[in-house]
Write a structure and sequence with these properties.
17 strands, flat, 10% strand, 8-stranded antiparallel sheet, 720 residues
């Protein structure tokens, strides 16, 4: 209750989204008073203050009970009295008049709460709210023309705004008709049948105008006749099409003129007419032309202009139509509603319903109080502080579930929307993160999560690896890794990382060398085979010379290299053997520290910088503190597989390789020790002898090369 007195600089978070959290969304929507999709500190403070003020003992908020005791509601204020009375009314409507507590399930279903009430204070009047049949019919007419909204019972109804709009449209439609009635001679030349006759006229007016315009154009230029009539090529394409009313050829004929275009030619009314327009033209003749002009076989241009003038006033009146939304009711029904007190009756019903608004709003207050009493303390433990996150056996509202992957379970899993956007900020968390696409097998829903790996190693983590994700409801999802953000996972992994890097480097180099040699071998074999085939084809041979000096030089170089390596090994072994027994373990420890020390220290400090903030900030939170994930806490967030009590691993492998005898290893060790001792004795005890040996080898190689360079008289035709 004193949250407003705590400096917000001390709050763990200042805002959070209303989506993607393991928290009741209805409660979050009630707290989010400005409906912007985010919960901010002032809204949390307001919710706590309001809920605490309506309880006799605000300590009840900490209990987080699912049910709110009616006796716990403070009825000393007017709002408290209204909330308590509304709670009792809700229970009575649900046939629980003797209940002493109320739950969110009781307040959530407003349709059940107001099912037996005629008015519910929402200002919406459904058909059932009217007592007489005429008013019920009126409400149905209004909804059919002006639309409807759902009331708290879930039934469609009308509001005062809809009613006002309907009657305004009705009045506009009536006034529009009054204009035609005042000038009926011009606007309604066919009386009450004018609308039907005008429909026939307007259906073909454009086509008749098109015909006479084409004829006048041919009169202007006779050469235009061929272009304005359908060309023969087009008519030939119709031969293979279906020309019936439903065929694909009828659409092509529809665009043809009404009749053949010629200069100064009247429109034929009975023969030589476009077959698609024949029936429409016949209706025009029987309903418009014959009543106005009498029987005839053709229609002149001037006669058509006179017919059009008869409908010009009607067309102008039709273009100025108002109140079209109520036209379906007809002018008689509309004028009937305008003449009686229909609007006053429906307005009175709406006012009667709105008078109960305070009592109805109290129902919403009851629902809000029940939800706040259950959820507000949990929210503050995940907002003002992250105590749920740092407390054992509890999970924060942003923890979506548990990911099982690579013999470990990851408890820090957060739902995300955009992997690219999230990863760009989350990498600042100094935490090893795994992004997974998850699919639910039952309903085929999909979501994306990010999981923090805070224990174990990263050797087997790679894109495409599969796991299983269990959400907070226990539902399982298939999870597949789609992205990794790599950071140190543990001090142990940092200690062994140099050796892994060396091993990977050596392995890669050996692989590269092996691949290169394989390619060279294949190339040489290919060249050799090709050369042999060419030689066989030409019947000649090309003997290749064998350079023994070069061959001897290669072996000498290999010997020198092996000698150098042996000398280096012997030097190290010799120095190590000079140490006392108690110094030898210290020397080995010093070597380990020199190799692993820097990476271990670096990894340790990186692990100390692990931070929850960037992970949540990337999800839309405004984290206001350095939410550290230290090494012991990180180990609790990711659990490594452990055998059950009283169980052991079986070391027996029926398919293992047969072990060598211990005598073989003894012999190998003796040989290695002998070589090392000989190298040590030869190099360190007699360094001059080593130098003399080197000089002799080099001189012998030079002499051999000099002798081979002088051709022998007997061997001058043979290979050197």
């Amino acid at each position: 209750m004193a949250l407003d007195q705590i400096d917000q600089k001390l709050w763990a978070a200042l805002s959070c989204p209303t989506k993607g959290l393991e928290f009741n969304e209805k409660t979050l929507a009630l707290i989010d008073t400005d409906d912007d999709g985010r919960i901010r500190a002032p809204e949390v403070i307001a919710a706590v203050k309001w809920a605490g003020s309506l309880l006799k003992n605000p300590d009840d908020l900490i209990k987080g009970a699912d049910a709110l005791q009616l006796s716990a509601i403070d009825d000393s204020s007017d709002e408290g009295k209204a909330v308590l009375a509304s709670a009792k009314e809700i229970l009575r409507n649900l046939h629980k008049a003797d209940a002493t507590e109320i739950t969110s399930e009781d307040t959530a279903d407003t349709a059940r709460i107001f099912a037996e009430t005629q008015f519910n204070g929402d200002g919406v009047i459904p058909v059932a709210s009217a007592d007489d049949e005429n008013t019920q019919t009126l409400i149905q007419d209004i909804m059919s023309c002006a639309g409807s909204v759902e009331d708290r019972c879930g039934a469609p109804g009308v509001t005062q705004e809809i009613v006002d709009s309907f009657f305004a449209e009705a009045q506009a439609y009536s006034d529009w008709w009054q204009i035609a009635e005042d000038d009926a001679a011009n606007i309604l030349p066919f009386g009450d049948a004018t609308a039907d006759v005008a429909t026939v006229f307007l259906a073909i007016k454009t086509k008749v105008n098109d015909y006479f315009t084409r004829c006048r154009l041919v009169e202007f230029d006779p050469n235009a006749s061929e272009a304005l009539n359908p060309p023969n090529e087009v008519l030939q394409t119709l031969a293979v099409k279906d020309l019936s009313g439903s065929g694909d050829g009828a659409e092509d004929i529809l665009s043809f003129p009404l009749a053949r275009i010629e200069a100064d030619r009247p429109l034929p009314l009975h023969k030589g007419i476009n077959p698609v327009w024949r029936n429409t033209l016949y209706k025009l003749y029987t309903e418009v032309i014959e009543p106005l002009l009498g029987e005839r076989d053709t229609l002149e241009d001037e006669e058509w202009e006179r017919i059009c003038s008869n409908f010009s006033a009607y067309e102008n009146w039709l273009a100025s139509k108002n109140g079209a939304t109520v036209e379906a009711l007809g002018i008689q029904r509309i004028r009937e509603l305008l003449a009686n007190d229909s609007k006053a009756i429906i307005t009175a019903l709406i006012a009667k319903d709105q008078a109960l608004e305070p009592e109805a709003n109290a129902v919403s207050s009851v629902d809000k109080l029940v939800r706040y009493s259950r959820d507000i303390y949990s929210l503050t433990n995940n907002f003002v502080s992250f105590s749920d996150f740092y407390t054992k056996d509890t999970k924060a509202i942003f923890q979506a579930g548990t990911l099982y992957l690579d013999a470990r379970s990851c408890n820090l899993c957060v739902k995300i929307d955009d992997v690219v956007k999230h990863s760009s900020l989350a990498q600042l968390s100094s935490t090893f993160l795994v992004y997974c696409d998850c699919t639910c097998k039952e309903n085929q829903q999909k979501m994306t999560i990010v999981a923090a790996i805070t224990s174990g190693s990263s050797d087997n983590l790679r894109v495409g690896r599969n796991g299983v994700f269990y959400d907070r409801k226990g539902q399982d999802w298939d999870a597949t890794i789609i992205k990794l953000i790599e950071h140190p996972i543990s001090v142990r992994e940092a200690f062994w990382s140099p050796y892994k890097q060396i091993s990977q480097f050596v392995s890669q180099q050996l692989h590269n060398i092996s691949t290169a040699q394989s390619k060279n071998l294949q190339s040489n074999i290919s060249k050799s085979v090709s050369g042999s085939i060419k030689t066989i084809g030409t019947g000649t041979s090309s003997p290749q010379s064998f350079d023994i000096a070069k061959f001897a030089g290669i072996f000498a170089a290999i010997g020198l290299a092996l000698g150098a390596i042996g000398a280096a090994v012997a030097s190290v072994v010799g120095d190590f053997l000079k140490l006392s027994l108690w110094q030898m373990p210290l020397a080995l420890l010093a070597v380990l520290l020199i190799i692993s020390g820097p990476s271990t220290i670096s990894g340790y400090f990186k692990l100390r910088r692990r931070n929850l903030g960037p992970i949540l900030d990337a999800c839309g939170w405004a984290v206001n503190t350095r939410a550290v994930i230290n090494i012991p806490f990180g180990a609790s967030l990711t659990r490594i597989a452990v055998l059950p009590p009283n169980s052991t691993h079986s070391a027996r492998d029926p398919y293992t390789t047969r072990k060598r005898s211990w005598k073989v290893y003894v012999v190998l060790l003796a040989i290695i020790a002998g070589i090392a001792f000989a190298a040590y004795h030869f190099y360190y005890k007699n360094p001059n002898s080593w130098n003399i040996f080197e000089k002799k080898v080099v001189q012998e190689l030079k002499n051999e090369q000099s002798n081979l360079s002088t051709p022998h008289p007997i061997q001058h035709n043979t290979k050197k």
